[in-house]
Amino acid sequence: MELEDNLLSILESLHDAVLVISKDSKIMYVNGAYSRHFGVPQNKIIGRQLKDVEAEARILQVVQSGRPLINDYSYVHSLGKDICANITPLLENGSLIGAVAIMKDISEVVALQAELERYKTYSDKLEQQLNQEIFAPLKSRSNRMRIAVELARKVAETDASVLLYGETGVGKEVMAKAIHQAGKRANKPFIPINMASIPEALFESELFGYEEGSFTGSKKGGKQGLFELANEGTLFLDEIGEMPLNLQAKILRALQEKGFQRIGGTKWCSLDVRIICATHRDLRQLIKQGSFREDLYYRLNVVPIHIPPLRERRDDIPFLTSQVLANLNPKYQKYVTVLEEVYDIFANYHWPGNVRELSNVLEHMIAICTKNSLTAEDVPHYIRIKKETEDKPDVFQQEVTPNHVNLSLNGLKQKVEKELIEEVIRNSKNRTEAIRKLGMSRKSFYSKLQKYGLA
Ligand SMILES: Nc1ncnc2c1ncn2[C@@H]1O[C@H](COP(=O)(O)OP(=O)(O)OP(=O)(O)O)[C@@H](O)[C@H]1O
Ligand SMILES: [Mg+2]
């Protein structure tokens, strides 16, 4: 077969549309595929000036510049189509004589892409709504609480370790669960471990599990530890300040190495968990006393969130009451409401047990109430007596600055990271110690110093 003779029939048999123009932008040739795809008969277009047909055509740029355009996307108005084209200049003896475009109609792909975009926006909106619902129980009128919730909402999208500070009963576990549910690990387990309630001797086996026969009394077949159960999900280490020092070292190692071994085992279990911790104690104080490891503290305190005590957000009492009643009313099969006089008394009480105490008081009141509404008389006596001296300040004075809230997620992470590095450097004898505490490589430590202008 003589290729040159058959060139035209080759072009005619192509599936892709071909357009050839001369140097002065006259349309010299379009193939059959061009006519089929774009509904323009060959004899109606060949010989015309492309400028008159499609003034914006990209092939015109190519004859002008002599430079090819590869995988070029454009919308062709005269055809009403999205086109992907490879356009190359045509040369004869080194001089430009025109250009050729091989084109694909990608209108369908573009339409699908637009539809995908629409679905993505829709699913983002749904996700946002869900996120709103998840954090709805933590709604507050207090600025400090709103800041805490806003931070929680933001970190939920990341895998960053969160340390929740707050007095007993403020809702640390409620917030930890919300962070888990609003994050990517929502349909994986949320495993709470209360460090204050596990006897010290059992800590290790509870957390890391054990292999069969590793100690007297061990179960047949061994036992999975809470770390294994939490894999791919979230581990909520509650009352972290109560953890004995030797266990702190083991947990730190597991977190740094992203894995551990069961007691008496040799198999390596890799660990992929998000860590949320909570404490009602001042960990810095514990570090000073030598009962909490500083390196573990920095590891866990990536994003600290302070939940203020109820006495500093008394305006929230009516809303919290309505939430507690929504749970209690069905339980007691009573549908009681609360009179304003009750809120007046509640507003003067100092709530040392915070939301938990409020919930217990309401439960007590409902249990003994014989009417349809809770009145001042139903309020336990000790709550009615206001003690002037009891409004002690929150132990967690350190405020989260409101600036945090306006930052983007990335901005927030960087700000927290910068502050953390500054703090560690301040509290270390030298840089080597700071690097060890931060658990970073020397190289990334110095590149972060550069990045944050701390060098
Ligand atoms: N925003 C809220 N809405 C409804 N109930 C709440 C809210 N916050 C806390 N509670 C209730 O208060 C009680 C204490 O909450 P949670 O266990 O989360 O507190 P905590 O800070 O973890 O306390 P502790 O330090 O004693 O462990 C729980 O019964 C919880 O359901
Ligand atoms: Mg708790």
Description:
The chain is α/β, with parallel strands linked by helices and 455 residues long. 45% of the residues lie in helices and 16% in strands. The chain has a 5-stranded antiparallel beta sheet with strand order 2-1-5-4-3. The termini are far apart. Bound molecules: adenosine-5'-triphosphate and magnesium ion (MG).
Q: Ends: how far apart?
A: 73 Å
- Report strand order across the widest sheet: 2-1-5-4-3
Structural class: alpha/beta
CATH fold assignment of the largest domain? Rossmann fold
Topology:
Layout: H1 3-13, E1 17-22, E2 27-30, H2 32-38, H3 42-45, H4 50-53, H5 58-65, E3 69-76, E4 81-92, E5 95-105, H6 107-135, H7 143-156, E6 162-165, H8 172-182, E7 190-194, H9 203-208, H10 226-229, E8 234-238, H11 245-257, E9 259-261, E10 268-270, E11 274-279, H12 283-289, H13 294-300, E12 303-306, H14 317-332, E13 337-338, H15 340-346, H16 354-368, E14 373-374, H17 381-384, H18 403-406, H19 409-426, H20 431-438, H21 442-451
Parallel strand pairs: 6-11, 6-12, 7-8, 8-11, 13-14
Antiparallel strand pairs: 1-2, 1-5, 3-4, 4-5, 9-10
Helix pairs in contact: 6-8, 7-8, 14-16
The protein binds adenosine-5'-triphosphate and magnesium ion.
